[in-house]
Design a protein that fits this description.
homodimer; 60s Ribosomal Protein L30, Chain: A; Alpha/beta knot; 12 strands; elongated; SpoU_MeTrfase (chains A, B); transferase (chains A, B); RNA binding (chains A, B); RNA methyltransferase activity (chains A, B)
Chain lengths: ~260, ~260
């Protein structure tokens, strides 16, 4: 195997550096560039394990000599940045020392019979990432995000997802019409109405719909749902965090299989 | 009732403004000042509903004429800040237009027989806030945070908690010794060992222990637990977000009562 091509960059004004900075700091830039910035060893390892194609491996200068050969060989092209430049590009408070640029996975077609999570304008990157982790943990392989949800491949959602992205089929910027082919029963949570989750007989596979942090699931989407389910909250508070509610619902479905 | 004293401030260098800025932006400042910054109408309403004593009500200049009388009368002292100053003080991307300064609730003594959540160095403010919401929703009235956990009354945790703080007895900066008096059985989640949650007979009341995002629950604390419980993850991922795991466990306990 030939040694990969290694390029050292020290200038902030380098064109590659400028593109990478946008990719790392702007949540929707990946859509324009068609590629994704995956930062830190945990995420990069998850990407490799799941067979993602790495376009470019990026290392900080001080870490490069310590990098595992496996990582350096993962990409046909390797870029080494000065530590200051790497820190400047990273969106993290504690920047990692390496990252991969991978191709944005091609959009997959909706699988009508797959266990699915539908995100109806869930806004917070941490919530979306946590929901992707729960989906992957509980065997929901397909996640469809309606327009207005956080950008799934943004650096913040990727970080919160902890690698779950690479185990899922993700569809984003979807419209309500895109949900039409779905044949599995659609369940929505409701604060005051519906069957209590802990007593409900849950269908499998199914699609759980999770709504906007403030407004919940839209009336139109709720109207299309097969069932409304509520989570008993004996403590008296009126609402859970959406990612907490998602975890409870997806776990209940997985346990009922 | 006499009209409350209203003071208008326009200077960034005003001593009150400087203290408030620290309180709103520094996560542990409340411990030094013995008071808490509660920003935005949702949180302020939750504080009032739960009988918190408001020391000072703070309004932006443009919102002040529109403020509800109830809010203006909640505090014996009212401060009106120019809009620019309010935005500068706020830690939020979209600053609210009003907030309360409340006294830091006095530390409560540990209740040995109460349903309890123990935070073992949970770091992320969003996670801690979400766990407080779940605790409150599922009837766990007592939360004890061990040293190394996120500061419970920090602005970020308060925001993520959505008012749950005011419904709970919170103990923070606790040591393992502080847990000694606890008489309810202590449960920890484990990735590979213990009874599966969905089949376990759960005791009530109990204490759920939730651990550090990367390291989990410390070995010492795990050694003190009565039982290890695992969450079945048929999808194959190895870990859930800690707030997601917390929601699942607390809901299971509440459903088993």
């Amino acid at each position: 195997m030939t040694s990969p091509l290694v390029t050292a960059i020290h200038s902030r004004d380098n064109a590659f550096v400028k593109d990478l900075r946008r990719l790392a700091q702007d949540s929707t830039q990946y859509r324009k560039q068609g590629r994704v910035w995956v930062e830190g060893d945990h995420l990069c390892r998850a990407a490799l394990t799941r067979g993602q194609r790495v376009s470019i491996a990026v290392f900080s200068e001080s870490f490069w000599p310590l990098a595992q050969v496996e990582w350096a060989l993962a990409a046909s092209k390797t870029i080494v940045l000065s530590d200051a430049l790497f820190a400047d590009i990273s969106g993290l408070e504690s920047p990692a020392r390496m990252g991969f640029i991978i191709e944005l996975p091609a959009a997959t077609a909706l699988q009508p019979d797959a266990a699915t999570v539908v995100l109806d304008r869930v806004q917070d990157a941490g919530n979306v990432g946590s929901i992707l982790r729960s989906a992957s943990a509980f065997g929901f392989r397909q996640v469809l995000a309606l327009k207005g949800s956080a950008a799934l491949w943004s650096p913040k959602v990727l970080r919160a997802g902890m690698g779950a992205h690479f185990a899922l089929d993700l569809i984003e910027a979807a419209s309500l019409e895109d949900l039409q082919p779905l044949r599995v029963p659609m369940l929505v949570t409701h604060v005051h109405e519906g069957d209590f989750l802990h007593r409900a007989e849950l269908p499998w596979p199914c699609a759980w719909v999770l709504g906007h942090e403030g407004q919940g699931v839209s009336a139109e989407l709720e109207g299309r749902a097969s069932r409304r389910i509520r989570i008993a909250q004996p403590g008296g508070e009126e609402s859970l965090n959406v990612a907490a509610a998602a975890a409870i619902c997806l776990h209940a479905s997985a346990s009922a299989r």
